[in-house]
Amino acid sequence: MRVEIYSDIACPWCYIGKRRFDRALEAFAGAEDVEVVFRPYQLVPDAPMEPSPHRAWLEERYGPQSRAMDDRVAALGAKEGIRYDFDAALHVNTLHGHRLLRLAEQEYGAAVQRELKERLLAAHFSDGADVADAAQLTEIAVAAGLDRERVTAFLAGDEGTAEVRAELARAAQIGISAVPTFVFEGKWAVQGAQETETFLRALEQVAAETAV
């Protein structure tokens, strides 16, 4: 079974959704036959490459209610073992992170890509990292298992940029308008950071539907 997860590094609900899906996969009897691949999506495609404080950006966009929004996410995240630090988090473009995720899948495989995704989310939401900065991205990628020289050369150029932009366009074409969205076998979709039980039922139902 193939599960494609459309997700953004700067999406707090994507982090919660990933953790819940991971738990569902651990409980799924056929987990060894499931390949999980992350696909790019950008909540704010025109976000600048220069970082600014997340809190200020969110308040400008949503007003006084923005802190309550963050607090709600942080409380839910804590139940999933996620430590959100929205005071340290930065608002910045995620394109280069998506490029790295594509590189990880293409050259290292789905398991390494999955590890990189977890580390990018943690860097962005827990550590206050600048996920548009080449040096910081390199350290995150190396920790996930990518080769330092390959990553350094990759981020120094535009390799993968056109391909990621094409994937972003394809996501829009197939109707992905919110994240996280989990697409099973290219046919069935589950949208949002659903409860673990919901993801487990989806895995079991798709497995039954596709059984030979």
TrEMBL record:
It comes from Streptacidiphilus monticola. This is DsbA family oxidoreductase. InterPro entries: DSBA-like_thioredoxin_dom, Thioredoxin-like_sf. Pfam families: DSBA (PF01323). The lineage of its organism: Bacteria, Bacillati, Actinomycetota, Actinomycetes, Kitasatosporales. Residues 3-203 form the DSBA-like thioredoxin domain. SUPFAM superfamilies: Thioredoxin-like (SSF52833). Signal peptide: none annotated. It comes from the Bacteria.
